[in-house]
Amino acid sequence: MTGMAGGVPASRAVGRVFFTDAASGRRSSCSASVVASDSGNLLLTAGHCVYSRGWHRDWIFVPSYDQGKRPFGVWRAEWFVTPSRWITHGRPEDDVAFVKVASSGGVRILDRVGGNGIRPGAATGRRRTVLGYPFLPPYRGDRQHYCEGVTRSEGRRMRMACRLTTGASGGPWLDSYDRSTGFGYIGGVTTNTDLANTTLWSPLLGGDVWTLYRYADQLR
Amino acid sequence: MTGMAGGVPASRAVGRVFFTDAASGRRSSCSASVVASDSGNLLLTAGHCVYSRGWHRDWIFVPSYDQGKRPFGVWRAEWFVTPSRWITHGRPEDDVAFVKVASSGGVRILDRVGGNGIRPGAATGRRRTVLGYPFLPPYRGDRQHYCEGVTRSEGRRMRMACRLTTGASGGPWLDSYDRSTGFGYIGGVTTNTDLANTTLWSPLLGGDVWTLYRYADQLR
C-alpha cells in the first residue's frame, strides 16, 4: 500500500532535509527522522544524504514539512556520523548516517516533535511502515508519503515493494507504527530504489550500526 | 519577474528531463529545449545534465511536461555532446551540452514541437526569458516556470536575478521570446543558482559552443 501521509500515518518525527550536495554543488533534498535518543538531538538518515564524495553543506531538517509550511521549525546539523566504509567504498549496505542537530532556543528536537524507538536486532520478514518525501513524479516533494508492506532480506540489505521515488532516501522503516501517535521502532532506512520505482531497499541495521548510534549520540 | 509558465509564456519546445545520475546512481531531473537545427533532433541543456563523473543513463526528454502529462510524448537521448573541458575540469563556464534524440515514429522532435533559433554572438545586457522545471521549494517540478530580466556579464558567464531552484538547470535563456509562438533565440542556458536562490548563471555561448553545436547536429 502506498499513499499520502495525510491524516492517517503522517509522523511529526519525520521530515524533509535540504542541503548543498558535495558532489554536484547544487541544492538537493532527502528525508530523515528523529530518534528517541538520550541526547534528544539525533536524526537517522541515509549515508548519501550526508556524504557523497565530500560532506554536504548547509544541511537543515524540517520535521513534518508540508507544502512549504514548517510547523516545527528548521533544525541545523552539527555533526554527521556515517560508517567509514560508506566513505571509502560507497556500498549500499553501508548507506546509513546519524545527524546531531543543534537545540533550538534551548529546546531539543526530541522534546519538540518526539522520536522513534530503538529496538536493535529486529528481523526482516515483518510488516513495516516507510515514510519520506519523494520529489520525482508522480510525487512533488511537497508532503509526506508512506508505504506499508512486508520486508524481505537480500544479502546485507532488505527490500520492500514500494513506489516512492528519489527524495524518499533517508526516511525511516518503522516496526509497530502507531498511527495515533505517529511513532514506531526503527527497523531500516530508505537508501535505494529501482529504475521502475517498484522497490525500495534498506541496509540491515546490525550491531555495527548501533555502535555508531551510541558514538553519535554522545557527541557534543 | 518570476512566474508560472501557464498561459502566457509556456513553450512547447521546453521540457523536463529525467535520468539516472552517473555520480549518485539515483534518478534526477533537469530541463532542456529543442534547437531549430538541420537535423531536427537536437536539444540544448546543461553539461551537468548529461555528465557528472560519468555519462548519465536512461535519459529522456518530455517536452511541455505538465503535472504528469506528456502532451508530446517522451524522447530518448542517442548522443551527448559536451565540451571536453566540462569533463576534465568541470568549470561552470563550460557547463553546456547538446543532446541528439531519436525520432519517434519517424517524426523529428523539431517537426513535432518546434524549436528555438540560433543567433550566434548575442550579447549580454539584454532582456531575456528563462524557462525551466525547478523542483525544490517553493517549486515542485510539476510544471514549467519562467523568469524575465536583464542579463549581466560576469567573466565568462552571465547572470540574471531569478528565484528558480534546482531542476531549472538546462533550461534556455531566450532572446526576443515570442509569447504567442513560445519560441525565441537561444542566448544562454541555466547552469547554476546561489544558495539563497536569488540569481541564475549561464555560460557565455561563444564560437566554441557553436562549433560544438555543428558537430553535434551532424551525428547520426
Automatic annotation (TrEMBL), chains A, B:
Q: Name one GO molecular function term.
A: serine-type endopeptidase activity
User: Keywords, A to Z?
Assistant: Signal
Q: Which GO terms describe its biological process?
A: proteolysis
What Pfam family is a match for this entry? Trypsin_2
Q: Which domain of life is it from?
A: Bacteria
**Quick check: keyword Transcription regulation in the entry?**
no
For whether the record's keyword set contains Signal, the answer is: yes
Tell me the PANTHER family matching this sequence.
PEPTIDASE S1 DOMAIN-CONTAINING PROTEIN, SERINE PROTEASE
Annotated protein name in UniProt: Peptidase S1 domain-containing protein
The major lineage groups are: Bacteria, Bacillati, Actinomycetota, Actinomycetes, Streptosporangiales
